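Batch job 17 of 40 flagged for manual review because the log was empty.
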Amino acid sequence: MKNQAGFTLIELLIVIAVIGILAVTLFPNLLAAQKRAYDVSALSCATTLVKAVSVYRIDHPETSVVPPLSSFYGTADAEETYGTNVCDGMALQDLSQPDHFKFEVRHPNGKKIYTVTENGLSIGS
């Protein structure tokens, strides 16, 4: 009988165990990176909304009324004019009052909530 080169069952089990340990170690880190990516996407949308409100007020100096969210997001024309198409897929909430505006932005799969007001951008939970 010839000696055939190859891997023994023990060697294969050790390699599979090492790969399993690496996978268990890396998987939570990958999920955390994905959550951070969702939050960065929401931050990009919130930053765009801050700029959109500023541009809206420049475009409409005659009005001191708080602009509703629909003025610069939600229609193709508004999104093209103000660049708010980066907010597609975000959970946007208009919490404006008659004397000030407040928008909350979050990604449905993210953790953080970003709030846009006349004072700028703030980060929630």
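Reviewer: the log was empty due to a logging misconfiguration, but the result itself is present. The helical segments are 9-59, 76-82. Unflagging and moving on to job 18.
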